[in-house]
């Protein structure tokens, strides 16, 4: 059982391969139902296409480790949040060149959006600019650093 | 055709006839099971007929708006907007999949059955969502009304006594909040930009505003779903509060875009009566699935 959890937890996000699905908070549960290992995943965003790949990767990883009966369930509740991302995950993201979520997902204050400073993962400067609120995947926005001039992805607070 | 022996003339003739009848004779379609569908809090939950009818309305709103927005990919004013509108469409498609999956449990139909194998009069989306993309300002105005309404809706629906609807809504509300931010930012930018951008934003608001009231109309279904679904009319105050704040920030007053002689649309989308815009859009959305049932790639 503990081995099954370790194997499932080591599966990486196909879009951000430095993060495991455990770092990302997508892995919700690993349990035994009779002889079947049941893994429960939750999608990051409702339409995230990577979830199908994650399911296949979990099935393959557990099967390769000798688990013969494996099932992957999905749940939407409770809704995923970047608050579940581990500190190790955030550190790995930054090292990889993606600015991690800047703060905890809290109550939104009003209809007119405000933005907070995002630190450049390359040079550490806070002189950065949001180029686009939507990035290469649903979970990221696109920034550029005004100090070192490099563009970078920011993992959105969600 | 290689297994037909040349001297079997009748079989050859039959084969040619079959090939001529199927102009896509070299396309092979595998009857594979489609990928597992995402489900709500309880994967085994089955919707009652009323809950399914309600989920169908919301699922159709999300699906039709998603399909509309997808058109912009490669056509938006800038690359960042290709990505933004595409990402919003993807979130909406996720909501549509969850809602249509749940709606389908009442009648044994899959989300794909509902998306691809219903005809125009069987769709239950409100007219706002099927309106054409227009210019970029029209897409923003439609998105602003849609996301402002959806945020009120999903906030309330996340308290539903129906666990599946509550789970879908609790997830969706965070995403539509971001869609609303996008629409608000562009509304401010266009309204406060050049004379031309402001003129177009006001034209777009004038064109889309008449489709707002339909979203807030109660009917008999809501009477039967007390506690499960919020009454549409109960969402109006929250919507107006946000709407007024955005217009004030944009320096727009209602008389800038509300024409005194143009009232609100009668909009019969919830009962299957649609504007002329839905049919052609569905034809494009459904043609592949209908021509090649079960096709995958």
From TrEMBL, chain A:
It comes from the Bacteria. Residues 10-64 form the MIP18 family-like domain. Gene3D superfamilies: Fe-S cluster assembly (FSCA) (3.30.300.130). InterPro entries: Fe-S_Maturation_MIP18, FSCA_dom_sf, MIP18-like, PaaD-like, Zn_ribbon_PaaD. Residues 117-156 form the PaaD zinc beta ribbon domain. Pfam families: FeS_assembly_P (PF01883), Zn_ribbon_PaaD (PF23451). This is Phenylacetate-CoA oxygenase subunit PaaJ. The lineage of its organism: Bacteria, Bacillati, Actinomycetota, Actinomycetes, Micrococcales.
